[in-house]
Design a protein that fits this description.
Layout (H helix, E strand, L loop, with lengths): L1 H10 L4 E5 L5 E5 L4 H11 L1 H14 L4 H14 L7 H72 L10
Antiparallel strand pairs: 1-2
């Protein structure tokens, strides 16, 4: 317990120690924050990993989606749909729901993988568009300044030329 406290002080972090003896007696110690707060922080930070592990664990216990569809098709083709037990139907339904949720999760993951590069490309194009717009505005201003200077120069040096037909 003392080493845990020293580690907490040295690293500037919260440490929780939980010891269960062979007789079943529980010893706990926490530094800084309370044990409950440390455990809550741990749960929050590792919730995503636990969800993935739970989903993986659930899907390994079930048949693949293709196998499920084959079983249902076989049962329907047998014509003995009335002989299927309620437990069997409930089990198949649960397996379908789990398979469907894993398929949807994978689909969402793939869609997000496709969207991320597009969002990055959009951001780059917007930035490039802003740079080009500022350059265009700058060039427009320079062109206006040049025209104004040319008009001033031409009006000072040369009288306006008239067409020969009008002379």
């Amino acid at each position: 317990m003392e080493k845990a406290r020293q580690l907490s002080v040295l690293c500037g972090s919260s440490v929780a120690v939980l010891i269960v003896s062979s007789t079943g007696k529980v010893y706990s110690s926490s530094s800084g924050d309370s044990m409950a707060k440390i455990l809550k922080n741990y749960e929050v930070q590792h919730a995503d990993k636990r969800k993935i592990l739970d989903l993986t664990e659930k899907t390994t216990n079930y048949l693949s989606l293709k196998e499920l569809l084959e079983i249902v098709q076989r049962k329907l083709e047998e014509g003995n749909v009335d002989n299927i037990s309620l437990e069997s139907l409930i089990s198949l339904e649960d397996q379908f729901k789990t398979a469907l949720s894993s398929v949807r999760a994978r689909k969402t993951e793939l869609m997000m993988d496709l969207v991320k590069p597009l969002q990055e490309k959009e951001k780059l194009l917007r930035d490039e568009n802003q740079v080009l717009a500022s350059q265009l505005a700058k060039m427009g201003k320079e062109n206006e300044d040049e025209r104004a200077m040319l008009l001033e120069y031409s009006s000072d040096n040369n009288p306006p030329e008239t067409l020969r037909l009008l002379k």
